[in-house]
Design a protein that fits this description.
The complex is a heterodimer of chains A (246) and B (222).
Chain A: H1 11-43, H2 57-84, H3 87-119, H4 127-148, H5 152-166, H6 169-179, H7 199-231, H8 236-243
Helix pairs in contact in A: 1-7, 2-3, 2-5, 2-7, 3-4, 3-5, 3-7, 4-5, 4-6
Chain B: H1 2-18, H2 20-41, H3 45-66, H4 69-77, H5 80-86, H6 91-120, H7 125-152, H8 159-186, H9 192-220
Helix pairs in contact in B: 1-6, 2-3, 2-6, 3-6, 3-7, 3-8, 6-7, 6-9, 7-8, 7-9, 8-9
Chain lengths: 246, 222
Amino acid sequence: MKLNWFKYASPVTFYPLAGKLIPWFALAAAILTVAGLYLSFFVAPTDFQQGESYRIIFIHVPAAWMSMFIYIVMAGWAAAGLAFNTRLSSMMASALAPTGALFTFIALWTGALWGKPTWGAWWVWDARLTSELILLFLYMGFLALHAAIDDPRRADRASAVLALVGVVNVPIIYFSVKWWNTLHQGASVSMTMAPKMAATMLLGMLIMALACWMYSIAAALARVRCIILEREQQAEWVANLAKEPT
Amino acid sequence: MMQTLRYVVSRDVLLAMRRRADVATTLFFFVIVASLFPLGVGPDPKLLRTMAPGIVWVAALLASMLSLGRLFAEDYADGSLEQLVLAPEPLTLVVIGKVVAHWLVSGLPLVLISPVIALQFDLPREAIVTLLLALLLGTPLLSLIGAIGAALTVGVRGGGVLVSLLVLPLYIPVLIFGAGAVDASAIGMDASGHLSILGALLLLGMVLAPWATAAALRISLE
């Protein structure tokens, strides 16, 4: 049996697949969020230095991780759209951008809420905060450029080039705490060493990160379905969808 | 290959010289913006000395950004950009030529007048030398990065403001290291680290930016 790897590369086939997948990811996100928040508020111990205010870590860190991860995935889809000239890849990139921008904003905002009680300042211009702010600007630039160009294919390709030029920023954010003397704390979680935090805190953070990931997938799939309908509205299959009894 | 480069540079410089007002306005904008800040924050010399590197750099950034419109817009309007893209010469080379011409006409004047602005802010002599060096390294990089933004928005409505949104986030590292270099010099420390990174960014930009700009031009012109 020959596998057609590109079966779902077409909007016609991908639309129903996405529709079937969304409820599963949404359910996973909901369950993981409940579990993660329970762990964060009731199980994880009080921090010996920061007291209770450290608990915002359970939203701040997953949001920051997602903001960087989504940008890379978005740039990946943009590159695929440029290389293979496929519409759906670019639609996926456009679908991911608002979710990524949202997580970047959440990371910045929750960071400020954390910074005030611990550092005494809502905002400092250190390397990590500044580069995360630049990431927000890059997301907004991507969305603005796409919206400004009328021809959808040209818009796709232009924003793809922009996304790829900006992907350089993500390693800078990630390594900024190592390269510069910053106020922001260094990496506590690493792939090669034991984590420098209590096991329950780490578990709560990882579960919340997974929850954000599931949410991002569900949101991006839902958004890409809307984009597909908008862009393919002239196609017959879309008209047939509208005629189906709900 | 050198012939193509020489041709593109001389053409663009000649065209710019025919419209000297465009070039002069960029320079005057730089001077005026740099003068606005002391009027806004007050004449305290100590404060101005601390703020001077940042102010001069931000003014250079904004002036550079405003002049980006001239890079491709006029050629696009009369169809010669399409001919340049269709020509058998490598588009990256054409882009390099245009960026060099743009820098000669918009960036170099900024570099040359920056010591005068620095004197207005009472920067010490070593800092002025560092400012010259940093701007010399930084303004070509601003032209290179700006070319990417200009190429992406060729012919797009609302292009001017959109270019700012696209290009300013990419300018920020240049600003940080450029202003950092002058800051370090002003307090008597060694600026060679900042200048080295600026140089490295320039090299990276010289290699990658024309390629991205050429790709963006092809996308914008199909």
